[in-house]
Write a structure and sequence with these properties.
Layout: H1 8-14, E1 18-22, E2 28-31, H2 33-39, H3 43-46, H4 51-54, H5 66-80, E3 84-85, E4 89-94, E5 102-115, E6 121-130, H6 132-135, H7 143-185, H8 189-192, E7 197-202, E8 213-219, E9 225-232, H9 237-257, H10 261-272, E10 282-289, E11 294-300, E12 306-308, E13 314-316, E14 321-322, E15 337-340, E16 346-350, H11 362-375, H12 381-392, E17 402-408
Parallel strand pairs: 11-14
Antiparallel strand pairs: 1-2, 1-6, 3-5, 4-5, 5-6, 7-17, 8-9, 9-10, 10-11, 11-15, 12-13, 12-16, 16-17
Length: 409
């Protein structure tokens, strides 16, 4: 059998059920034949026009909210990159042949994202199940019972939608509190400035995807030395922010008295065993000796730091890797490794939100980071941090929070 190329445009037009494609700005990009037929619109009346322009809410019904609800759902899909199944909606659709006359319709919509190569939402799929006839069923010996069931179904669907909206508002409030807690627990910019360093924290898009990542810079005893670390707590929201604060403080204290980063992570690993919510947490810490021009590092399941040498050579610090903080029931010594640098090199620590993308190998993200750092290596730490975030984070924001530390050596 000969396999021929599939004409997906023809497949889309022939899909059973009502399906439309919208741009992230909620402008119709296309609609299949069933969508046009059931909505009583032509291709020219739909494509290229905004959702609310094609199907406005009925101005004669003050309670009409179907289109506002649909627009809000599509915007959530655009911002989160996640599918959204809506409750049953009532739409009053204006007759295109008789302006001013509105027909009562009931649709059950599901909205989903179409992602581009870089993980951003490039289109929105709007699929509709027409249930008007079911809701308007009349007649027969069970007609009265049918009317009761219809009313019950519609009422429960609206209650579910209102409950979901209240949950979203509660999550938004939790996000605000978690962000404030995160900001309070991370080192202030003035603590970082004298180290020729730049720090950045970018919360994820969405209501709860925030506050698992952290960074720390600490002055070490003996000589001109500092410790630089980043970490990632599994989970989001207030609980993750609390765990993050405990682990960051514990590592900061351990680093001040430890002989090296491996010992500091060993102490932190033992502490993580007794902290609820620290399961699978990762961290990497580096001890920088400016006098000896060495970097000693150790990693507990975390992406490797990057050392960009003054000549542009990129070195991933991946020769002292170990499982996450609480992965071993019996603590064992963690590995550490020492490397050298020359003046003008740049050390970069980060969390996985900077490099990981859905359906993409992690090496692709690491190569993207190395390329960006190489091209902008002449910039100062602050400008370099801004350039890296601009190039590596999706335009609409990442689905995981991101911490970034850049130190000019």
């Amino acid at each position: 059998m000969t396999v021929t190329a599939i004409d997906y445009a023809r497949v889309f037009r022939a899909l059973p059920g009502m399906v439309a494609l919208l741009t992230p700005d909620l402008v119709y990009a296309d609609a299949n034949e069933e969508y046009l037929r059931m909505s009583g619109r032509t291709h020219e009346q739909v494509v290229g026009r905004h959702l609310v322009e094609v199907f406005p809410d009925n101005p004669n019904n003050p309670a009409a909210s179907g289109m506002r609800n649909l627009a809000a759902s599509l915007e959530r899909v655009r911002e989160t990159g996640e599918r959204d199944a809506m409750a049953l909606q009532r739409y009053d659709v204006e007759d295109p042949e008789r302006p001013g006359e509105w027909e009562e319709r009931y649709w059950s919509p599901v909205n989903a994202p179409v992602l581009g190569p870089d993980g951003t939402v490039v289109l929105l799929v709007h699929r509709v199940e027409e249930v008007t006839e079911l809701i308007k069923a009349r007649g027969g010996p069970t007609g009265g019972r049918t009317r009761v069931l219809e009313a019950e179904l519609y009422t429960r669907a609206r209650e579910l939608q209102e409950l979901n909206e209240r949950l979203r508002q509660a999550h938004a409030r939790e996000r605000e509190v978690a962000l404030a807690l995160q900001e309070a627990m991370l080192p202030a910019r003035r603590q970082v400035g004298h180290h020729r360093a730049a720090v950045r924290y970018r919360p994820a898009v969405g209501a709860l995807n925030v506050c698992g990542d952290w960074y720390d810079l600490v002055d070490l005893v003996g000589g001109h030395r500092i410790g630089v670390a980043v970490g990632d707590v599994v989970g989001h929201g207030l609980a993750a922010a609390g765990v993050m604060g405990q682990l960051r403080s514990a590592l900061s204290a351990a680093s001040r008295v430890a002989a090296g980063p491996a010992e500091a992570l060993g102490v932190l690993g033992r502490y993580a065993h007794v902290v609820d919510g620290a399961e699978s947490a990762t961290a990497v810490t580096t001890f920088i000796d400016f006098d000896a021009r060495t970097i000693t590092y150790s990693s507990a399941g975390h992406p490797p730091p990057v050392l960009v040498h003054a000549d542009g050579r990129v070195e991933f610090l991946d020769r002292a890797t170990d499982p996450p903080l609480d992965a071993r029931p019996v603590p064992v010594p963690r590995p550490e490794f020492r490397t050298t640098y020359t003046e003008g090199a740049t050390l970069v620590l980060y969390t996985d939100g900077l490099i990981e993308r859905r359906h993409e190998d992690i090496d692709t993200g690491l190569n993207r980071l190395a390329d960006s750092l190489t091209r902008h290596r002449a910039a100062g730490p602050e400008a370099l941090a801004d350039a890296v975030l601009l190039e590596l984070l999706p335009p609409g924001g990442a689905t995981d929070d991101t911490a970034l530390v850049i130190v000019r050596l």
